[in-house]
């Protein structure tokens, strides 16, 4: 597994999962296997029943550092796309969605911090047009962490927990258990009526993706 890429995907996944709270009300888990399976040209993010809740697509363009990340629902219907021009290994990154506008509708930033855990910040406007801001505090010892909704002058609100664990759900068909990333959306997280108008998972961008060094789609 390559840590930087995994962090990127898990953060995106987290925010997307939050955006789908109206479809899958909290408390709720979103799960991704640490093993990669690109057979269908996407990576699956499962709900607790083993059904595809989200699908991740990633494409690198010819220009170095230029990439497009697409989050789709379980039937491969695109929810939104994020573009980056600095998607390098061990480098501060930024992923944006413009939707034909001059300003970014969604904005995800990864801050690489030497000798400390990396940090994600992301924001997007809700359906009423109010921009919501989030922070992902990664654990220093593993890929887990906590996702908070933040606002100046207000107390941070916990909205998601990210953990690495071994799961024994029957639908894995694996008696030894499966190494996974699990994103849990907590009850404090507000429910939204439109899955595309919420925190772009990210709370799920942080969710889950164990990337392997031999995968052609993930170079770090």
UniProtKB/TrEMBL annotation:
Signal peptide range: 1-22
Keywords tagged on the record: Signal
Protein name: Uncharacterized protein
Organism annotation: Puccinia graminis f. sp. tritici
Taxonomic lineage of the native organism: Eukaryota, Fungi, Dikarya, Basidiomycota, Pucciniomycotina
């Amino acid at each position: 597994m390559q840590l930087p890429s995994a962090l990127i995907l898990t953060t995106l996944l987290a925010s997307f999962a939050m955006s789908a709270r109206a479809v899958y009300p909290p408390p709720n888990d979103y799960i991704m296997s640490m093993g990669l399976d690109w057979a269908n040209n996407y990576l699956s993010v499962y709900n607790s029943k083993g059904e595809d809740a989200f699908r991740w697509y990633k494409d690198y363009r010819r220009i170095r550092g230029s990439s497009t990340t697409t989050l789709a629902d379980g039937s491969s219907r695109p929810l939104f796309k994020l573009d980056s021009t600095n998607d390098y290994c061990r480098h501060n990154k930024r992923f944006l969605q413009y939707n034909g506008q001059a300003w970014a509708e969604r904005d995800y930033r990864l801050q690489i911090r030497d000798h400390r855990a990396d940090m994600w910040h992301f924001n997007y406007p809700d359906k009423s047009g109010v921009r919501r801001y989030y922070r992902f505090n990664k654990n220093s010892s593993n890929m887990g962490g906590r996702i908070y909704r933040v606002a100046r002058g207000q107390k941070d609100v916990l909205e998601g927990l990210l953990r690495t664990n071994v799961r024994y759900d029957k639908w894995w068909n694996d008696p030894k258990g499966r190494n996974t990333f699990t994103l849990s959306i907590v009850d404090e997280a507000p429910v939204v009526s439109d899955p595309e108008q919420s925190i772009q998972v990210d709370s799920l961008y942080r969710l889950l993706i164990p990337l392997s060094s031999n995968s052609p789609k993930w170079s770090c």
